[in-house]
Design a protein that fits this description.
Layout (H helix, E strand, L loop, with lengths): L2 H8 L5 E6 L3 E8 L2 E6 L4 E7 L2 E2 L21 E2 L24 E7 L4 E8 L12 E9 L3 E9 L5 E3 L1 E3 L2 E3 L7 E3 L5 E4 L9 E2 L10 E6 L5 E4 L6 E8 L3 E6 L1 H8 L11 E8 L5 E3 L4 E12 L4
Antiparallel strand pairs: 1-2, 2-3, 3-4, 4-5, 6-12, 7-8, 8-9, 9-10, 10-23, 11-22, 12-21, 13-21, 14-18, 15-16, 15-17, 17-20, 18-19, 19-23, 20-21
The structure holds 6-O-phosphono-beta-D-tagatofuranose (TA6).
Length: 305
């Protein structure tokens, strides 16, 4: 569907509209009560979320749609595996739906919220990548919070070992003044460590003075991103259907190696806190069953500061 068809079918007044992005592809724009979010049909990737005028997500200034490369920033959808493929490193990292065009399947709006659903599915050509058949949809709901629901349906006859992530890049004023709270006591895999079998214990809040790349296991609690947000409030991340949380900042060397962050200091203004099922937290999805991974982001005042 082109943008005109999308608007004919799914526009909801000013709350849900479609346009061609200057990044080079079609996007949906949700607007409600002074906030807005933009979602690319490519990868069903949220590219931005302006909450009452403040941008809450980080997007590389080098981001372009329509290339073979996943867009750096916003909320990449990692599916049907997280990270390098568990058995074949030649397969694309973070699965194979980030660079595919998803179809819009539903939209809605009311006084308090606007919502859109995009979907894609495995195809006959995917068997070499993924020997199962499945469908996946992402529903984005914008209101006073931003909620993302990633639903997987096992449409085949074999159980699916599923890992996945909403790989969210949050914008922060300064990584050196950023703290991730409420993971105290959680066990984690340190992806930068030399022993992948080691399980470390998080003691105290997470702060950043080097590259951090950790998969927190059994992490079902709400997570607080305290970064003296420009809004003067903290961001709370609530999840459902998620057993893992990944915390990542590439720091200086990896930022340079990645080459698509938009400059050597880009790491100072972002942190990834990803709502996931990853590492030991593999979801075994029986034939015909569904699984929903949900993340909700909301700003709260720093009452307890
Ligand atoms: O979630 C953290 C991570 O797995 C890092 O190891 C880094 O690779 C990051 O994802 C980005 O991955 P990408 O494939 O988008 O470059």
């Amino acid at each position: 569907m082109d943008v005109a068809d999308l608007n004919r079918t799914f526009q909801r007044h000013d709350a849900v509209t479609f346009e061609m992005s200057p990044l080079g592809g079609p996007v949906a724009r949700l607007r409600i009560a002074g906030s807005e979010t933009t979602i690319a049909l490519q990868g069903a990737q949220v590219l931005g979320w302006r909450h009452k005028g403040t941008e809450m997500l980080w997007l590389s200034p080098m981001a372009r749609l329509g290339t073979a490369k996943a867009v750096r920033g916003g909320v990449p959808v990692c599916w049907p595996w997280f990270g390098p493929h568990p058995a074949d490193p030649a397969k694309p990292a973070h699965g194979f739906v980030r660079t595919r065009d998803w179809a819009v399947t539903a939209s809605s709006s009311d006084r308090l919220a606007a919502s859109i659903t995009l979907a894609t599915a495995t195809g006959p050509g995917d068997a070499a990548l993924f020997p199962h058949t499945a469908a996946v949809s992402l529903t984005v709901t914008l209101g006073d919070s931003l909620a993302l629901s990633l639903e997987t349906r096992n449409t085949g006859a074999t159980d699916i070992p599923l890992t996945q992530a909403l790989h969210t890049y949050f914008r922060v004023p300064d990584i050196a003044a950023t703290v991730v709270e409420s993971l105290t006591g959680a066990r984690y895999i340190d992806k930068l460590g030399d022993d992948a079998s080691a399980r470390h214990l998080q003691v105290g809040p997470i702060t950043f003075d080097r590259e951090v790349d950790r998969i927190y296991l059994g992490a079902t609690q709400s997570i607080v991103l305290a970064s003296a947000q420009a809004t003067g409030r903290h961001l709370v991340i609530e999840s459902e259907g998620s057993a893992s949380a990944i915390v990542w900042n590439p720091w200086i060397d990896k930022t340079i190696r990645l080459g698509d962050m938009g400059g050597p200091n880009a790491y100072r203004h972002m942190v990834c806190i990803e709502t996931a099922n990853a590492g030991d937290d593999v979801v075994n999805l029986p034939a015909g069953e569904r699984h929903c991974l949900r993340a909700t982001y909301r700003l709260v005042s720093m009452l307890y500061e």
